[in-house]
Amino acid sequence: MRSSTKRLTITAGILTGMFLAALEATAVATAMPTVIASLGGLEIYSWVFSSYLLASTVTVPAWGKLSDVYGRRPLYLLAIAIFLLGSVLSGQASDMTSLIVFRTVQGLGAGGLLPLAMTIIAELYTPTERARVQGYFSGVWGLASIVGPLLGGFITERLDWRWVFYINVPFGLVAGLVIGIWLVEDASARRHRRVDVFGILAFTASVTCFMLLLVEGAPPGGFASPRSLGLIAACIVLMAVFVGAERRTRDPLLPVDLFRNRMFSTSALTGLLAGMALFGTISFIPLFVQGVIGGSATQAGSVLTPLLLGWVLFSTVGARLLLRFSFRRVMFSGMCLMVLGFLFLDTIGPGTPISTLLIYMGLIGAGMGMVMISSLIAVQSGVPRELLGIATSTAQFFRSVGGAIGVAIMGAVMAQGMASRFAELTAGKDAGSLRSLVDNPNALLDPLTRQSMAPELVATFQTVLAGALHSTFMVATIASVLGLLASRLMPAVTLGPDEKK
Which of 140, 293, 490, 495 has the highest local Cβ count within 10 Å? Predict the structure, then answer.
């Protein structure tokens, strides 16, 4: 097989694996109401998603480092195998607890799929070729984001919710078969390297404590509760142990020199802040559409479509712009679009047409597409080849953690905002008529319930929720402005001439 054909075959395998990971993220969410009806366990519903997020996030740097030591091919195949094992087991789950455990297994494999795919592509193509190829990956991710909910709904209604997990198997087998047969690596550059087992364990334990704190949110006693304080203390102590150990080991999990690299550190910081703004907003915009504007569940979900399409389209545009302009200029331009979108988002209210909201979301998605593609290629172009795996995966890790931080902060801000506004309302003379609203605000998210309630009560709920969500969007705006400032730290470097592989 010719070299060019071989590269295309491997790329097709990687695209299939990425489609698998992206499909999982959207199809499962569509099927979850039916899963709850079948298995029960509504009180631990959120952990079906949180366990997957936790496992996939904390293991990302470990996958990258291990691939630097043992090679991309065996680690990518292992990640696919673990992911498919978790998928099959999830389809066999007999109760919600077992489903959560099996989703954790899935997440362990998912933590390696995307960063290892990006690393393999970085080794297959020269920097200039990489900028062109990344557009295909964005297209696959966008296609899966659109097809996923439709496929999940079709499978759930026509077959059985368990097939939402089984559908992963053929895609995973194809991706694994292609990579297993066609990807051949030179192991000579890795034979003197070793695994920093202690560093991996300490880092994973520290980040796990941090992520548990975020995904669980503030408990009834607040973050000053014994459980929260224990997690915070464990996170700090374990991270201190990790940093101390990394300074002494010969081949650390996260080399300190990596953070002295301005292209890497700026990309990681900008990705974290952009992730905070974007993924936090994604979690609350559907709530605004359904609770404040009064849209249907379908409209609440469809409002994210322009964001995803904008992300896909402008990832391709950003990749092309990198062939002519510096990383700093493309990243800064993307952050400007994001800031503009969030500033517009701060102006929305109960009377905002959904069509206007679609434009704002498209603008934010366009900016995110340019930021992510420029930061990814900047990281891969700015580090030595032997650090390519850990650098790529760590940049992905910071973006994921940023999203988790954004959701946690915005959730706390929204809860506090609603509590304070309800407290002000119930302090008035007509508090009795608002008691049902204060005791069960979730009920007004149901369109049928809203129709049966007094119009003034619904209007009060919309005003309270709009005010609370406005505060969350302000948090996103602040994060995007900080990301805009961080992007200016990126060196004014352009893609160099193609390197021989």
Answer: 490
Question: What residue spans define the domains of the chain?
Answer: 1-183, 197-250, 259-501
Q: Can you give the pTM of this predicted structure?
A: 0.77
Query: Position of tokens 């494999």?
Result: 109
Burial class (CB in 10 A: 0-12, 13-18, 19+), 296: exposed
DSSP string, 129-173: HHHHHHHHHHHHHHHHHHHHHHHHHHHHHHS-TTHHHHTHHHHHH
Q: Does domain 259-501 have CATH number 3.40.50.300?
A: no
Rounded Cα–Cα distance for residues 326 and 323 (Å):
8
Angle formed by the axes of helices 96-124 and 60-70, nearest 10° = 50
Per residue in 187-209, pLDDT (tens digit) is 655 545 677 788 888 888 888 88
Place of tokens 């292992």: 78
- Are 171 and 16 in contact, with CB atoms under 8 Å apart? yes
Same fold, 1-183 and 259-501: yes
Class of domain 1-183: mainly alpha
